[in-house]
Every structure is written in structure tokens, then in C-alpha cells.
């Protein structure tokens, strides 16, 4: 099958055409998609009508799948699939906007995910775009002084802070003792070297990064706030406007993403996500 790869909107985003994920893929096609994924951190495949098994089978071409710690959001028969929806059918994520803050998925894991593959099943006709930030470009655009300040540094990530913030706002049930025990601090480099591309990228996110080690708390907070503001400047952003059947697959290590608002009373928005396991990240050496 001949696939085509076309950059859309930005160099780090490409649309793949000529692939039907409801049929088994040959090795050559998988290799071409994998290569496209290292060349472009975000891939878009339109009009895919696939079932849950096909979503999982496609995802497994890129690695083992990661299961989320909040079991209520997983499909009972297919826990590899996380449901994000504003309609309260069995096992859906109970929010209007899943991930409506800048984050990369599950960076609080010691081996954070390599990527996520999101399938839009029902999408609103307006609003509800997903925004993506290019963390390679964000790193490269930092001034030398900031690079010197962050290269070789370690940040602490934890899911507990995010979850408790949402629980206080009534958007999450109280966590179980098992969940609390699972959500320990994890450490990752603030800037890392991507194992496939060899490029440097920033690796902090508003969702789960708690602090930068070796700085006073107020310094750490100020630097994180400055880095977040830097990363979400318009030149680093791609906004995906969903159509039903879209698949967006992102390299979770060198991008951040953020859900946006839509009329939740008027429209349903239901998405299925698989998450691909990754490895520990290699840091950029201190200057
Ligand atoms: C996700 C996520 C945002 C959205 O699937 O990980 O954060 O717009 N989604 O649905
Ligand atoms: Mn997410």
C-alpha cells in the first residue's frame, strides 16, 4: 500500500493518506508510518472507521500498551482503551473537557509513554479542538542563558497534585488508597535528547510537573511558569479540528497538548485513546 505523508500547518505535523486501519497493515506500511512519526511528532489519519480491537492492534505496532491507573475511565473489555467523553455512559471520564490543561500524558510514570493514539468517535461541529505544542522548537528557541539554567536539571512529576486539584473542584471522585500509593514522585530531565531523532526537547508540563530540583520553591515555580508561557506561543502550536473518524497520534515525549472548550450541553464529544509505553529519558548534559 503506498502511503503519502503531507505536512499540514507546521513542520512537526503530517497527514498520512492511503492507509485503512480496518485492514491488517503490511510491514512496509508500518515501517513507513513509524518513520513518518519520527520525522513529524504528530500524525493525522482522517476518516478511519475502526473498532476497539483494530485500534488496539494498530497501536501495538508501536510498542506495548500502557493501562491508566484510573480504572473507571477504561473500557471494561479493553482496558488498553481510555475513554474521554462528556456523556455519562459506562466507564467514561467524568468531565466536560478531559485534559483541558497543557500536559503530556502520564509523565508521572518512571517510564513515561512514548506516544498516544486518539480516535475521535463523536466530535462537536464547533469547538473542542486539541492544541499541540512542539517541544523541540520550544527548546531550540530558548536563549542560551535559559538553556544553561535547565540543561542537566531534573524535574519532579506527580499525578497526585493534578488529581487532587480536580477532586477539590468536584471533577474527580476521592482517590482510593491504592491510587494514592501508586502516585509517587518521579524524576525526569527538564530537557532531554530524543532517542530516535537525537534532537533536544523540553520535558516539563503544567499538568504533572511539580518542581525543578535544586532551586528554591519560588524560583522553581517562576521558572516553570516562564517555560510554560514560552512553550505555548502561537509559533509552536498546532490546533487540531476534529472530524469524526480522525486519528491523531502524537509523540508524547516532544509535544504537549491541551483540550479546548465546546458547548458540552449541546454536543457530545467521545474519544478513545491508547497509550504506548516508553522508556526512561536521557538528559541533555549540563553546559
Ligand atoms: C488525551 C487528551 C485532549 C482532547 O487524549 O490525552 O488530553 O482534546 N485529549 O481530547
Ligand atoms: Mn492527554
Outline the structure in words:
This protein has 287 residues and is of the alpha+beta class. The protein has one domain: Double-stranded beta-helix (4-Layer Sandwich), CATH 3.60.130. It is built from 7 helices and 18 strands. It has helices spanning 27-39, 52-60, 135-140, 144-150, 159-168, 177-182, 217-231; strands at residues 4-8, 10-17, 42-45, 74-75, 78-85, 93-94, 115-122, 130-134, 154-157, 186-189, 191-193, 200-202, 209-212, 237-240, 247-251, 255-259, 270-276, 282-283. The longest helix has 15 residues, at 217-231. The termini are far apart. The mean pLDDT is 93.
Compose a concise summary of this entry.
The chain is α+β, with helices and mostly antiparallel strands and 287 residues long. The chain has 7 helices and 18 strands.
CATH fold assignment: Double-stranded beta-helix
Radius of gyration: 18 Å
- Unique ligands: N-oxalylglycine, manganese (II) ion
Low-pLDDT parts are: none
Which sequence of SSEs, written as H and E, runs from N to C? EEHEHEEEEEHHEHHEEEEHEEEEE
Percent of residues in β-strands? 25-35%
- Please report the distance between the alpha carbons of the first and last residues: 46 Å
Helix- and strand-based class? alpha+beta
CATH superfamily: Clavaminate synthase-like
Tally the helices.
Answer: 7
Note the quaternary state here: single chain
| Share of helix, binned | 10-25%
Number of strands: 18
Largest sheet entry:
9 strands, mixed
